[in-house]
Amino acid sequence: MPSRDASTDDTPGPRQAPARPELERWDREVVWHAFTQMAEYEPLLIERGQGCRVFDIDGHEYIDAVSSLWCNVHGHRHAHIDAAIVNQLSRVAHTTSLGASNSTTVRLAKRLTEIAPAGLNHVFFSDDGATAVEVALKMAFQYWRQRPDPRPQKTSFLALGEAYHGDTLGGVSVGGVAKFHDLFAPLLFDVKRVPPPRSYRLPHGVTVETALNHYLNQLEAVLAEHHEQLAAMVIEPLVQGAAGMLMHPAGYLRGARELCRRYDVLMIADEVAVGFGRTGRMFACEQEDVSPDLLCLAKGLTGGYLPMAATLATDAIWQAFLGRYDEGRQFFHGHTYGGNPLAAAAALASLDVFESERVLEQLPAKTARLREHLTRLAELPHVGDARQCGLIGAVELVAERESQRPFDWRERRGWQVCQHARRRGVLLRPLGDVVVIMPPLAITLAELDQIAEAVEGGLKFHGSGCR
Questions:
Q1: Do 316 and 197 lie in a common domain?
Q2: In the Cβ-directed half-sphere of 217, how many Cα atoms lie within 13 Å?
């Protein structure tokens, strides 16, 4: 075959980079953003990141004070994680986990079992937090049918009010955030529910001192009545994220675990948001010495680099799925990108960083600094509550402190505070009128000071009724 003359080569070249106005128009009209009213959306195009900061297309710099939606752990462009991904890419980017595996993924699975709460010796990989929960729900359901003494009547689930477990139909069913999920009610399965064990806005007659027993008594009443039908209880340990960072009374997780054991109900711990150091320990369950039957992980698993999730299970659950091929006991569930080697390489590198940079040991000083700021913010006129668990902070705005009366949601006070902070170089995303402060664990004390200063300015301006 004659060689091609370069002068007549019709191979298409690279497209010309679109101008900013065109990108913004596409972002408004083509990209459909999650939990965003697209009729009102104003583009913010992030071009690059470095450490705990990101830069938009115009070069404006922001502290990533919400960890790119709670997933970034060690900052952006961490050299060790970058190198691990490049190294894996030089070998293979993806292999299926259906009937095959990859050495990188296998090493990650083993390492997760070594650092997880005791007894969680088996790992099922999926794509994100919602799928990790979906996997756990189906495992729990199938387990009761296949264990040595089957109890097929255990088909229901127990969840907390205002829970959030993702946006797949199983996750939405056990979720309880009405404004997210009410529309889809006809598609969902029935779930038993107990009130969320909140520490702010306590029920009438309940005090801080009596709250723990009050909530555990409520939980036991439901378990006592329905345990024969309940396959599992699903819980966000310590903190209910999307509910507005509701903080549970100390001891609730431990008490719930003991009650689940007493009534023979599995516990599914959804640590998608609170895992990987967020509460000060690698896993939130460690704070109360709890080992669940199933543990759901995602977000920080890869350091916030790539989509990956894992559902960890006990030996008892694993063994219920073993048998001959013709018995059909295997877990009939899977995801194309489950156990992706690139994501596994990032996750392994992230765990390396936890060790080499002694990340957990650095957290007490940071959580103490955040506590100082939240204590000060709590004194502002329209702050009803400023709460914290580890490096998770939340400031709740109210119209009236004494009665805890909220602002009219249409005033978007939390959103206004976050817009104020953005103009001062801090990126935040509110949950209604709760301003969430959840930076990467790599945040510096000086950066925490800058975040708090921006939030305080917004609270003073917008929390006071100014516009």
A1: yes
A2: 6
**Rounded to 5 degrees, what are φ and ψ at 53?**
-125, 150
Q: What's the DSSP call for residue 240?
A: E
Same domain membership, residue 54 and residue 96: no
362 and 348 share a domain?
no
Task: Give Cα 168 to chain centroid, integer Å.
Answer: 14
Task: Measure the CA–CA gap between 199 and 220, rounded to whole angstroms.
Answer: 19
* 3-state secondary structure at position 247: strand
CA-to-CA separations, 127 to 85, 332, 350, in angstroms, rounded:
17, 16, 17
Read off the pLDDT of residues 345-395 as tens digits, 9 standing for 90 and up. 999 999 999 999 999 999 999 999 999 999 999 999 999 999 999 999 999
> Does any domain span residue 334?
yes
390: alpha, beta or left, given left = phi > 0 and alpha = psi -120 to 50? left
Confidence of residue 467 (pLDDT cuts 50, 70, 90): very low
157 within some domain: yes
The secondary structure of the chain in percent helix, strand, coil, rounded to multiples of 5, reads: 40, 15, 45
Distance from C-alpha of 143 to C-alpha of 166, rounded to nearest angstrom: 22
The angle formed by the CA atoms of residues 245, 247 and 252, to the nearest 5 degrees, is 140
Question: Which among 283, 335, 333 is positioned nearest to 308, based on CA atoms?
Answer: 335
- CA–CA distance, 305 with 272 (Å, rounded to integer): 15
Mean pLDDT is lowest, of 182-186, 263-267, 336-340, for 182-186
Say what the pLDDT of residue 190 is: 92
Q: Is the pLDDT of residue 9 over 60?
A: no
Question: For 147-151, what is the mean pLDDT?
Answer: 96
Cβ neighbours of residue 170 under 8 Å, at least 6 residues apart?
133, 134, 137, 138, 189
Check: pTM over 0.85? Answer yes or no.
Answer: yes
